[in-house]
Amino acid sequence: MELTIHPSAEVLGKSAGSEAIRMIRHALDTKGSATIIIATGTSQFLVLDTLTKERSINWSKVTLFHLDEYIGLPLEHPASFRKYIQERFIQQIDPLETVYLIDGEQDPNQECMRLKNAIEPLAIDLALVGIGENGHLAFNDPPADFETTEPYIVVDLDEACRKQQFNEGWFASMEDVPKKAISMSIREIMRAKHIICSVPDLRKAEAVQHCLEREIDPHYPASMLRLHPSCTLHLDTASAHFLKK
User: Three-state SS across 110-158?
Assistant: First the structure.
């Protein structure tokens, strides 16, 4: 893992976004296509903003997946990750070759199978991810399943995860936050050739410290990133606050 600490969240977002641009362009230049996974949430605002402003990418050769979606949440809900991706990414760029959005309003097991059939034959060139306040990677809350080889799984959201979604303003009350989601599994994220992990903000500092300085363990889901051969972790000074090394 390569670690970079930036002076601010804005610089972090631009740097991570620029790195993503280089990797997507490299995939397009070398094999004529690219498959990418993108994350949602507040940590990705500036990353995606940088990425969507790039006009040199031939998006018609890019296939898109995303990490997770709540079960039972309508597309029109402000917290819908499908809505987030459509508004903050898809509508800001030229048409993509193929888009696979997780539909949490369908039967969850059938939806996991649909996505499995779509993603398993493909090589994943780049995954953009973040780390949650509880250390989760995608919606793989602790203790995460490090063993499953299923690309997408149904997960229970723990209290810390649901509280983060409420505190970020996506829901009017804690009672409104769903308790289940469809998430890309840890092993499927690790299958990506390159991973860019963007983690701004002091509220993520403890999770960052646990994932970097404690053992690689399901109780610190993002700690698994340390085993990836090409993962770049972008922090700002706030999220790196508790690091001892």
Answer: HHHHHHHHHHCCCCCCEEEECCCCCCCECCECCCCCCCCCCCEEEEECC
Three-class DSSP category at 100: strand
pLDDT in tens, the chain (245 residues): 999 999 999 999 999 999 999 999 999 999 999 999 999 988 899 999 999 999 999 999 999 999 999 999 999 999 999 999 999 999 999 999 999 999 999 999 999 999 999 999 999 999 999 999 999 999 999 999 999 999 999 999 999 999 999 998 989 999 999 999 999 999 999 999 999 999 999 999 999 999 999 999 999 999 999 999 999 999 999 999 999 96
> How many whole angstroms separate alpha carbon 200 and alpha carbon 235?
6
CB 72 within 8 A of CB 178: yes
Q: CB under 8 Å to 195, separation ≥6 — which residues?
A: 126, 127, 129, 189, 225, 228, 230, 231, 232
| Phi, psi (degrees; rounded to nearest 5) at 184 | -65, 140
pTM, 2 dp = 0.96
> 21 near 51, Cβ under 8 Å?
yes
- Alpha-carbon distance 212 to 209, whole Å? 5
